[in-house]
Amino acid sequence: MKDIISGLNKVFxxxxxxxxxxxxxxxxxVDFNMIKQLLDVTDGNLASHLKALEKExxxxxxxxxxxxxxxxxxxxTPLGEKLFKEHIDALEKLINPLS
Length: 99
Description:
The protein has 99 residues and is of the alpha+beta class.
């Protein structure tokens, strides 16, 4: 059993981080407010999870102004894409070990 769970990545253990990565994997770029709305989390909760993912270099942050309003958007890095796919593969093996 240890071998099955060895592929899981601790970075993606949280449901919020799993949600963030899932959203970013299917979108080129997503802004803070959209992620917040989709996951129904508080600003502080989301910010702390985004910061943790950024620290691990699995997401990239882009800050800009749209007109006069600040806008922060996020994308998955190539490393993040690789690690998240490995994590999902490990989850699938855990759910269905005979496949």
